[in-house]
């Protein structure tokens, strides 16, 4: 039954009249903390002057990388901000592999969201501990369900909505993955895996356990040879070595396997990085399976198929850790359903200013893993482009790439390299064609549009998008006067367990050594959003080095 809290609204209105302020902040506080089955929040104003001067209501969905850095860079004195999420803390996800191995504690890679915002930003801010279940872009309402009581529903109005909900692990429809595999997206996942590893060692050490069962319990399979999978494999290999010292009777049964569908680990890094990672993991006795795909996961095993021959092998194992691929949340699909132009099933399509395509009024934006940037096409704005470059020939466009990059990110130096062999070959073929110059220009535009690569779903890009969007908001949503978003790849780092680090940068790469480790440590300490997190990380590292890992199990159900 829906209950409208009229008395609470009247009380809030009275307070607002006394204070000479808008209803918004007081109403939200009263409605949110009052136990009700259904809450509908609307904004009202006591005068036209108040309506003219009111702050825009900004609602942000999520407490991940995108949300944190958007709020951190937003001028809260200009806006009335509400952040909605079922998770009331930020997770520094690159540290999850170290949490899995017990090298750090939970507090080291988490930050309470509300306290962080209140410490770093001054202004109107409210955190709503709830899950967003749908969005009404026509009424500009966000429908939420309380994280603590599923029977309590809250509707939040907005002037601008920022969707930063991230993505979830993709099972690719493979049988048994959702039921039996362990994922690596949240702090809870990492803690459960750590406890499960210790529990399996204790189980294998019990009297009467067969050798076959010991081998199964102590065989850990990691699926996915990307940065998350490789980093986790390296950390777990070190943990299992420590565990073997504490459980010497079962040390000979320990085995770690990493499964990758491609032909090398760290496919987005340099070849040298991949080869170094292979050597480091092999030295730690990790079984590396390349060109293999997991086709089924059982309660006590997983089945691997050769991508070339189709031959399958079933491996008994105690843990399957899934670190392969992402998919969109159900909420993203619901938002997509409101707009015909949202025809990408994998992400929300946004323009070069991160505004959701189809809204028209720029009232909804999306950042991070849940979106894909699709800039305006050159070919669809031929008249505008030809006017800007002062001609209708390919040469005119090539002379004005820097000018056009303000509006079209696909021609920026980060996305288009005029010296790229494939691009040079295309231009040579175009120059000897007998087509009129205008048709050649259109063909060149189509080629450039088709070559655009949107930013990869990484923490680095999520941060860049969020800072850009916050600055756009701070400048009063001046879309026409703001340059298009251009991601800048600054390089990638991966820790392969212990002090082994690889780095892939625009002009060089690093494979191990003290320089790579110091660079990795410096970058991560800089990326930490708070001084407390830096202190905790250094403290955990020191304690672990001096006294070892805290190898205890908690009372926990490990069933999937």
Automatic annotation (TrEMBL):
Domain of life: Eukaryota
Keywords, sorted A to Z: FAD, Flavoprotein, NAD, Oxidoreductase, Transit peptide
Catalytic activity, as annotated: a ubiquinone + NADH + H(+) = a ubiquinol + NAD(+); a quinone + NADH + H(+) = a quinol + NAD(+)
Annotated ranges, domain External alternative NADH-ubiquinone oxidoreductase-like C-terminal: 489-550
One Gene Ontology cellular component annotation held by this UniProt entry: mitochondrion
Pfam family, one: Pyr_redox_2
GO molecular function: NADH dehydrogenase (ubiquinone) (non-electrogenic) activity
UniProt domain FAD/NAD(P)-binding: residue ranges: 57-380
Listed EC numbers: 1.6.5.9
Protein family according to the UniProt entry: Belongs to the NADH dehydrogenase family.
Name of the protein this chain belongs to: NADH:ubiquinone reductase (non-electrogenic)
Gene source species: Babesia bovis
Lineage: Eukaryota, Sar, Alveolata, Apicomplexa, Aconoidasida
């Amino acid at each position: 039954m829906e209950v409208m809290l009229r008395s609470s609204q009247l009380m809030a209105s009275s307070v607002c009249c006394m204070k000479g302020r808008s209803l918004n902040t007081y109403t939200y506080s009263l409605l949110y903390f009052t136990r009700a089955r259904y809450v509908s929040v609307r904004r009202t104003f006591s005068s036209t002057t108040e309506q003219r001067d009111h702050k825009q209501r900004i609602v942000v969905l999520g407490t991940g990388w995108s949300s944190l850095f958007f709020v951190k860079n937003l001028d809260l004195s200009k806006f009335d901000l509400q952040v909605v999420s079922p998770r009331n803390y930020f997770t520094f996800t690159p540290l999850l592999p170290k949490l899995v191995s017990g090298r750090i504690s939970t507090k080291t890679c988490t930050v309470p969201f509300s306290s962080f915002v209140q410490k770093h930003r001054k202004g109107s801010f409210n955190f709503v501990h709830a899950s967003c279940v749908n969005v009404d872009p026509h009424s500009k309402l966000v429908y939420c369900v309380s994280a603590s009581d599923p029977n309590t529903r809250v509707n939040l109005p907005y002037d601008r909505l920022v969707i930063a909900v991230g993505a979830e692990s993709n099972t690719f429809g493979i049988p048994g993955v959702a039921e039996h595999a362990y994922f690596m997206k949240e702090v809870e996942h990492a803690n459960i895996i750590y406890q499960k590893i210790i529990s399996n060692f204790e189980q294998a050490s019990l009297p009467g356990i067969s050798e076959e069962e010991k081998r199964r319990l102590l065989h850990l399979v990691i699926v996915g040879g990307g940065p998350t999978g490789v980093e986790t494999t390296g950390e777990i290999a070190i943990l299992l070595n420590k565990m073997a010292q504490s459980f010497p009777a079962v040390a000979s049964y320990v085995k770690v396997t990493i499964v990758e569908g491609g032909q090398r680990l760290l496919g987005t890094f340099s070849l040298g990085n991949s080869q170094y990672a292979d050597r480091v993991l092999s030295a730690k006795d990790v079984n590396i399976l390349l060109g293999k795909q997991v086709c089924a996961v059982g309660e006590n095993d997983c089945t691997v198929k050769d991508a070339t021959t189709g031959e399958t092998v079933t491996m008994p194992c105690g843990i399957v850790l899934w670190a392969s691929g992402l998919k969109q949340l159900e909420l993203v699909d619901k938002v997509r359903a409101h707009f015909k132009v949202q025809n990408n099933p994998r992400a929300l399509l946004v323009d070069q200013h991160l505004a959701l395509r189809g809204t028209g009024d720029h009232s909804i934006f999306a950042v991070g893993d849940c979106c894909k940037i699709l800039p305006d096409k050159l070919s669809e704005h031929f008249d505008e482009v030809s006017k800007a470059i002062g001609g209708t020939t390919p040469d005119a466009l090539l002379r004005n790439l820097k000018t056009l990059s303000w509006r079209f990110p696909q021609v920026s130096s980060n996305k288009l390299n005029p010296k790229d062999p494939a691009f040079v070959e295309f231009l040579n073929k175009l120059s000897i064609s007998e087509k009129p110059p205008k048709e050649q220009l259109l063909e060149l535009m189509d080629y450039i549009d088709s070559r655009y690569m949107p930013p990869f779903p990484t923490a680095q890009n999520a941060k860049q998008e969020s800072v850009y969007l916050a600055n756009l908001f701070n400048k009063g949503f001046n879309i026409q006067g703001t340059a298009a978003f251009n991601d800048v790849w600054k390089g990638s780092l991966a820790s392969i367990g212990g002090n082994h680090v690889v780095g892939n940068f625009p002009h060089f790469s690093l494979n191990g050594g003290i320089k790579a480790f110091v660079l990795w440590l410096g970058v991560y300490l800089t990326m930490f959003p708070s001084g407390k997190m830096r202190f905790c990380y250094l403290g955990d590292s020191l304690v672990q080095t001096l006294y070892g890992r805290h190898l205890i199990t908690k009372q926990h159900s490990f069933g999937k």
